[in-house]
């Protein structure tokens, strides 16, 4: 696709409508997505509960870039590009592990957890180790949530920390327990997943379990009265109740909304599935919903946290990584059961994966045309407008990013 064609597509975008086919299917557009969004903005990489001890690490791969996230001295968390400074070999080849020091498997160069070069075998005496530490990756923590940026100068993350931290704090994620993880490979474009998770137009027919738990999810009833009542209760417990709206010049969102009367948790029977998490003393916390574009979603109830990490692998493929967190003192078999803990989001998530794959299949048709959003899809329209503006900014700033 020529640069002029991409500019023309951006100029012809019709607000309030879905995107032209190429934005979902073109490899060239995907290249722009990766350069102007995935390599510029902040990416959710995992949670500190996955690396509780010094030397514990996880890796996260985005495109050709693999990142090591490792717990260092005094609990500090570091992020480094996973490429040896000798001849470039990948250092950590597993998605998680433990290494008091990081050793390249090729020629055994050894690095400290902070990325500094500890030992370079058989190098001359005058070799300057200080000049060959691992390349650092920008890293920020939000109460145990780990975000990284691959950019040399990432966009300002302070507003995200300020707005999301009060919602996350009560869950004490850093002291939590990773109860379960599951990954999916989905044949769809990453933007279709983002769009799907910003509307409930589809919830009534597609998510009976979700609608049974959440007031107003079926779009046939008002949530206003019960929300006023619940907010008073939440405020009395010191919980944050004021939402954070998503705007075209931001990239995050936060809300707290109510479960139905008698529903304690996201579960198939509405009953709690674990002991109250973190600082929560009961199950009256509603649902905390957090988003940080392009790849982070979190839903949390009084007894567990569910995170979703999207990784765009191509124009037509995404990896979805789900993590369920419970209180750090919870014991499996006594305080929670894996099947009951995970079944609600396993069912709801797989319903969404099927919808997103089907959506992509239809968009590939020669007869696909952008359609108008319904009023209840306002948040989808706002996301799409945000996305288009980010590409416009990038294209204007660089006179078009070089295509492969």
Describe what this molecule looks like in 3D.
It is a single chain. By secondary structure, the protein is an alpha+beta fold. Helices cover 28% and strands 23% of the residues. The chain is built from 10 helices and 16 strands. The protein has helices at 3-11, 21-25, 27-38, 158-169, 190-196, 203-206, 208-213, 224-236, 338-363, 378-398, and strands spanning 43-47, 56-62, 65-71, 77-81, 96-98, 102-103, 110-111, 117-119, 138-142, 145-149, 177-186, 252-257, 287-292, 296-300, 305-314, 317-326. Helix 3 (27-38) packs across helix 10 (378-398) and helix 5 runs antiparallel to helix 10 (378-398). The termini are close together. The model has no long low-confidence stretch (mean pLDDT 96).
Q: CATH topology of the largest domain, what is it called?
A: Naphthalene 1,2-dioxygenase Alpha Subunit, Chain A, domain 1
The average pLDDT score comes to 96
> For the record, what is the CATH homologous superfamily label of the largest domain?
Naphthalene 1,2-dioxygenase Alpha Subunit, Chain A, domain 1
- Derived from helix and strand composition plus strand pairing, the structural class reads alpha+beta
Write down how many β-strands occur, each being a DSSP E stretch of 2 or more residues: 16
As for the number of domains, it is: 2
What is the string of SSEs from the N terminus onward?
HHHEEEEEEEEEEHEHHHHEEEEEHH
In this structure, how is the largest beta sheet organized? 6 strands, antiparallel
Distance between the termini: 10 Å
User: What would the principal axes of the Cα set say about the shape?
Assistant: globular
Number of discrete helical segments: 10
Organism: Chryseolinea serpens
InterPro entries: Rieske_2Fe-2S, Rieske_2Fe-2S_sf, Ring_hydroxy_dOase_asu_C_dom, Rng_hydr_dOase-A
GO molecular function, one term: oxidoreductase activity
Domain Rieske: 42-148
């Amino acid at each position: 696709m020529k640069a002029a064609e991409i500019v023309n597509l951006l100029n012809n975008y019709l607000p309030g409508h879905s995107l032209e086919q190429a934005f979902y299917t073109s490899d060239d557009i995907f290249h722009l997505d990766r350069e102007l969004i995935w390599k510029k903005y902040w990416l959710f990489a995992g949670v500190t509960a996955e690396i509780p001890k010094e030397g514990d690490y996880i890796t996260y791969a985005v495109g050709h870039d693999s990142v090591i996230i490792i717990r260092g001295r005094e609990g500090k968390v570091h992020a480094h590009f996973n490429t040896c400074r000798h001849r470039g070999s990948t250092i950590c080849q597993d998605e998680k592990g433990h290494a008091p020091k990081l050793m390249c498997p090729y020629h055994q160069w050894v690095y400290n957890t902070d990325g500094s070069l500890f030992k370079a075998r058989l190098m001359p005496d005058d070799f300057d180790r200080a000049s060959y530490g691992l390349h650092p990756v920008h890293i920020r923590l939000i109460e145990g949530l780990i975000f990284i940026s691959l950019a040399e100068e990432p966009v300002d993350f302070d507003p995200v920390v300020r707005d999301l931290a009060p919602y996350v704090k009560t869950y004490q994620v850093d002291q939590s327990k990773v109860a379960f993880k599951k990954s999916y490979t989905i044949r769809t474009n990453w933007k279709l997943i983002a769009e799907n998770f910003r509307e409930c137009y589809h919830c009534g027919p597609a998510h009976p379990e979700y609608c049974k738990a959440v007031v107003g999810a079926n779009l046939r009833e008002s949530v206003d009265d019960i929300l006023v009542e619940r907010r008073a209760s939440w405020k009395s417990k010191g919980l944050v109740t004021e939402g954070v709206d998503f705007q075209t010049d931001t990239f995050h969102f936060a809300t707290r909304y109510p479960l139905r009367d008698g529903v304690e948790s996201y579960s198939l029977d509405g009953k709690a599935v674990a002991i109250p998490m973190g600082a929560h003393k009961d199950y009256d916390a509603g649902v905390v919903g957090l988003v940080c574009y392009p790849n982070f979603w979190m839903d949390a109830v009084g007894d567990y946290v569910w995170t979703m990490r999207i990784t765009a692998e191509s124009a037509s493929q995404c990896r979805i990584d789900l993590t369920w967190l419970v209180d750090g003192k919870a014991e499996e078999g006594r305080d929670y059961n894996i099947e009951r803990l995970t079944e609600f989001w396993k069912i709801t998530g797989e319903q969404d994966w099927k919808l997103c794959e089907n959506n992509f299949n239809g968009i590939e048709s020669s007869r696909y045309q952008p359609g108008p959003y319904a009023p209840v899809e306002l948040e989808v329209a706002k996301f799409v407008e945000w996305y288009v503006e980010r590409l416009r900014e990038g294209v204007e700033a660089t006179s078009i990013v070089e295509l492969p």
